[in-house]
Amino acid sequence: AAAGAGTSAAAAPLAPGQPSNLGTDLRRGHPVSFRPLPGAGTRLPDPGGPARLDGSGQLQCTTCHDPHRQFGGDPSGNFLVETTRRSLLCLACHDPSAVAPAGASHANASKPFGPSEGNVGDAASVADAGCGACHVSHGGEPGDRLVRRQAGDDDDAPCLRCHASAVVDVPMGQEFSRPYAHAHLGRGVHDAGEGRPGSAHPLPETSSAAPRHATCVDCHEPHAATDRPDLGGTVGGALAGVWGISQSGQRVDQVRHEYEVCFKCHGDSANKPQATGRGSPLAPRRAVTDANLRRVFDPGAISYHPVVAPGRGADVPSLKAPLTTASLVTCSDCHASDRGPGAGGAGPRGPHGSIYPGLLERAYLTADLTVEGSAAYALCYKCHDRDVLLSDRSAFPLHRRHVVDSSTPCSACHASHGVSSQAGVRGQNEHLVDFDVGLVRPGPAGRAVYTSQGPRHGSCAVACHGATHSPAAY
User: Fold this and answer.
1) What share of the chain is helix, strand, coil (3-state, %, to 5)?
2) Contact 261, 195 (CB under 8 A)
3) Contact (Cβ atoms closer than 8 angstroms) between residue 44 and residue 51
4) Are 68 and 189 in contact (CB under 8 A)?
């Protein structure tokens, strides 16, 4: 109510919307009146420390605030018992090993940031602001984990305020406006609890109607992420602390391999566009589509690119050193920014955005009658020596006749990821052979068939480009 006659303005109730007016919706502030349980990132305050639980061991407003000392522990004048700088007050109850582990980028970020990047006080850096750089103690949105937001924010805006600015060494604001990008679809699509046992938001998705989304925190754990690069095929620091799905389909609390992050959405999820008929019209069409990449890369699949396990083929003379038939590749070796370091640019690492379909790092054309060239199949030639592949030294000596002389795209005969046991037949889908039925027509047997007949031997029964193989052997 407004101040009445004879009542001083200073004594009037706080107006709605004022930062100090907590309102009556307690879901908007840090929870109180509960007994904290050690574990899962929390701990009990140190006995004798400034933050204290009440007589029954519950966290209350007075755990963080001393109503009699406005400047008791922090120069902000918010009646705090300890400063929030460098998260000191927060770390009384939040385990530093979980929310600010050694080497974590945010906990050690020394660059200054301004009001447009979320600095609401006079913190010298993100590290100085601590938890307050990204979180509020009061005034958050219900169920939003107290994330600091501004009007009109989507799910990624709190991250991009810094990561699309000069606060970071490699801004990535351009990435999400590329023609092909991991899509963020507005506000409230992501839920931080999704995928956890018993969550109302399962991940992998169980409904084909569930909206597809990829927000920053689906792939990155902002408290644990570091700038450590990938080491020997293990996950890099950018994926530290992220949970994922193992090759066997089990949840892992900390991914050990990059593909375990990808399998969260590109494995068993029921809402993948390829599985629901909403795939890209540019994508090759296979006789049987298995959009579950966890099965496609399974070591027991018919054939696969060596993401989970080394390939079974021992005869791949086109591989560029230092690659061998025992090598593994990662998803981001192919799916990455076209302006990132893998493509020779100075942009960010990882599959954030690209000018190429499929969010590919380099060009991989799939249209019929594509004129062969180092640019047309730049992605293939990243690992496979073009001169060897198009010569008699190749394990298949007729590549040149098909790709150069007849302008047949690689994708007409090969499935780039692989062929799962559900989509292929042993003896007919080795060497990633899986014909694009939009380009390759059935042969005399009524279907397009490749038959492996041992090392460097096989036959095709197909019809394409005016020629019928019935069958043709090599």
Assistant:
1) 20, 10, 70
2) no
3) no
4) no
From CA 302, how far away is CA 297, in angstroms rounded? 9
The answer to whether residues 290 and 283 touch, using CB atoms and an 8 Å cutoff, is no
**What's the Cα-to-Cα distance from 404 to each of 128, 248, 364, 465, rounded to whole Å?**
59, 40, 15, 13
* Token pair in block for residue 189: 């699509």
Residue 392 exposed, middle or buried by CB count within 10 Å (0-12, 13-18, 19+): exposed
CA distances from 89 to 93, 96, 126 (A): 8, 11, 16
Number of C-beta neighbours around residue 216 at 10 A = 21
Instruction: Name the pLDDT band for 211 (thresholds 50, 70, 90).
Output: confident
Residues in Cβ contact with 276 at an 8 Å cutoff, skipping those fewer than 6 apart: 208
3-state secondary structure of 319: strand
Helix (H, G, I), strand (E, B) or coil at 459: strand
Overall residue count recorded for the chain in this entry: 474
From its phi and psi, is residue 427 left (phi > 0), alpha (psi between -120 and 50) or beta?
A: left
One DSSP character per residue, 201-226 reads S-SS---TTSPP---HHHH--TTT--
Q: What φ, ψ does residue 469 adopt, rounded to 5°?
A: -100, 125
pLDDT tens readout for residues 76-99: 889 999 999 999 999 999 999 999
- Tell me how far apart the alpha carbons of residues 85 and 74 are, in angstroms, rounded to a whole number: 8
Task: Report the chain's C-alpha Rg in angstroms.
Answer: 28
Tokens read off for 292: 């579950």
pLDDT tens readout for residues 277-327: 777 888 999 999 999 999 999 999 999 999 999 999 899 999 999 999 999
Spatial distance between the Cα atoms of 313 and 455, rounded to a whole number of angstroms: 9
Q: What percent of the chain has pLDDT over 70?
A: 96
Whether 73 and 50 have beta carbons less than 8 Å apart is answered as yes
Spatial distance between the Cα atoms of 99 and 105, rounded to a whole number of angstroms? 11
Of 246, 220, 239, nearest to 309 by C-alpha is 246
For residues 96 and 131, the answer to whether their CB atoms sit within 8 Å is no
Query: With 50 as the cut, is the pLDDT of residue 67 above it?
Result: yes
